[in-house]
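Predict the 3D structure for this chain.
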Amino acid sequence: MINEVRNAVLSILNKNNYGYISPSDFNLYATNAQMEIYEEYYSSYNKVINSENQRLSGTDYADIESPIAETLESFLQTDYLVNLGLNIFSMPTLTTVGNESYYLLKLLCYPNKLKSGTNTSIVTSYLVDSTATFLSDGISIGDIVVNTTTGLSANVLSLSLSTNTNLALTANIFTATSSGYSILKVSSLKEADKVSVGKITMLNASSLTSPTDFYPSYTLEGQTVKIYPPTINSKGQVQAVYFRYPKTPKWTYISLVSGEPAFDQSQSDYQDFELPTGDAYKLVTKILEYCGISIREMEVTQFGMAQQAHEQPTFSVQQ
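Done. Predicted structure below.
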C-alpha cells in the first residue's frame, strides 16, 4: 500500500508543479500520518461505545464497533517481560521484545514455577536436561516451558515414562545448548491488579491486604513494572498483554543514475503501512498536509484538510 500512497501524493503535488518530496521526507510524513490515524481509532472506539450506551448505534451491518475493535486487536501483542533483577521487569520495548508498548492492557503472572535449569542437548521440539527429574518434579502435560535465553515458549506435549530428563514440546524453542529454561504451572495463571505507587506501601504493610500468589499486584514506574509479591521474580513468570505501536513505515527504493528512484520492496528495511487498506485515502490527505507545510504551499495543506473534512464516513473516522 505504501507505494500506491506515495504515487498518489506525488501525482497531486506534481499536477501544479508544487514541488518534489524526497523519499526520506515522505517516510517521515508517512510515519506521522499513520500515527495520527492509529490514535484516532481509540477515540473513535470510545465514541462508538458511548453511542451504543445511548442506543444511537445499530447492529448487523450498522455495527460500527466490531470493525474498529478488529483493527485495534491486530496490534494486540502478548510477550514475556524481561526480568531486570528481583521483582522488577522491563516494559515491552524494541530492544527487549521487539515491540514498543502503546497501552498496557493487563499483566498475567505464573506464580508457581516448578523448575528451572539449562538444556544439555538439542532434540527437535524437546527439552533435554540430563540433570533433571521432570516426573518427580510434578510437571504435567500443558505446563509452560520458557526458553529464558530467547524468550520463546511452548507447552509440554508429553512426558516420557522411560526417562526423567526429556520433555516433548509443542514447538521447537531450543536450538542451542546451555539455554536457560523455566517450567511454569499453567493452572497457576493469575491476572495482576494495577496499584498506584502511593498505595502499594500501605497494602504491603498489612497481612490482610498484601499481594499474594493468588492475588498479585503490580506498579508502573517509568519503563519498568514491579510485581508483588516479590517471589514472582524470574523471566517467564510475567506476561504482558498490550497494544503495540505500529511499525515505522519505510518506502525503499533503488537509486538510479538518472530519473526517479524505483520502488524496491525486497530490501531488508522495507515496511508497509500497518493500517487497513481502506485508510489509504486518509493517509494521502494527511501526508499532503505535511507536504504543504514543507513546501510552504497553503493550497496543498488546505486541500488535504478539506478532503478529510468531506471524506466519506469510514469505520475509523471520528464520530
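Residues 155 and 170 are 6 Å apart (CA to CA).
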